[in-house]
Amino acid sequence: FTGPFTVALDGPAASGKGTIGRALAATFGFEYLDTGLLYRAVGARMNEGMDPVEAAETLEAGVLDDPALRTSEAGQAASKAAALPAVRDALRDFQTAFSRRLGGAVLDGRDIGTVICPQAEVKIFVTASAEARATRRYRELAARDPEISYETVLADIEARDERDMNRSDAPLRQAEGALRLDTTEMSIDDAVAAATRAVAERLKT
Ligand code: CDP
Ligand code: CDP
Fold first, then answer.
1. Residue nearest to atom 3 of ligand 2 (CA)
2. pLDDT value of residue 48
3. What's the pLDDT tens digit per position in 140-184?
4. pLDDT surpasses 80 at 201
5. In terms of Cα–Cα distance, which of 99, 91, 106 is closest to 18?
6. Is the beta carbon of 82 within 6 A of some atom in ligand 2?
7. Ligand 1 pocket, 200 CB below 6 A?
8. What's the pLDDT tens digit per position in 62-78?
9. pLDDT on residue 109
């Protein structure tokens, strides 16, 4: 195909969106954007005392490479900043432009299929139990910080789920027409295979 082709991947924290998104990008030659990093970058600057709306309006793509954005603190700050409609608005054009790139794009986040790209060619809602997600995220974080506890990671995920699902602007929801992938009992390979099939099918039509 030529022209834009958008894959919208949404779901709660540590459900496997990034893993699936990177695999789809590699298989189909699409560009990949983890939109959570935009909100994490805004949250991190907010924690340093900057106004979150100003942080969103002046964000530059280079900040997305900062490894400090992966911490739980940045995640919590991200979900607080993400509840502000003016922050979401300021980050919107960048995401829309990215989604229309020629050659295909995969975006992962919370509102890609519902708000940013409701016309996406493929929409997938990736989910898993809070305990399964906490176990996964705990393994990642504990590799870098041995002080971290599973209970803290679970509490962090539950607090973000609650905030992300109950905010009034762009709450986390399964988009209409989205394929639901509950990965609680699924291996990474099976989840990637199911998403790959959905994209391959759509590319044929
Ligand atoms: O992007 P998101 O926060 O949704 O999740 P991720 O970064 O793709 O996945 C979080 C962690 O869970 C990673 O360490 C994955 O390797 C792991 N994972 C898993 O164990 N089983 C899956 N079915 C998917 C992801
Ligand atoms: O990697 P993980 O799934 O833990 O979270 P993330 O995707 O990095 O997102 C961090 C926070 O940003 C989320 O908890 C949401 O509050 C917010 N976010 C959002 O509101 N909309 C998006 N499209 C992406 C992230």
1. 13
2. 94
3. 999 988 999 999 999 999 999 999 999 999 999 999 999 999 999
4. yes
5. 106
6. yes
7. no
8. 888 898 898 889 999 99
9. 98
Q: Of 10, 19, 107, 192, which is best to mutate to test ligand 1, by the most ligand atoms within 8 angstroms of its C-beta?
A: 19
Q: Which atom of ligand 2 is closest in space to residue 170's alpha carbon?
A: 20
For 63, 131, 158, the CA distances from 150, given in Å and listed in that order, are 29, 9, 12
**Same domain (yes/no): 72, 118:** no
- Please tell me whether residues 13 and 40 are part of one structural domain: no
Rg (CA), the chain: 16
Same domain assignment for residues 124 and 160 = yes
Structural domain that includes position 43: 36-90
Both 75 and 11 in one domain: the answer is: no
Ligand 1 pocket, residue 13 CB under 6 Å: yes
Torsion of CA 120, 69, 50, 9, to 10 degrees: 10
- Among 63, 10, 17, smallest CA distance to 38 is for 63
Ligand index nearest the alpha carbon of residue 114: 2
ipTM of the complex: 0.97
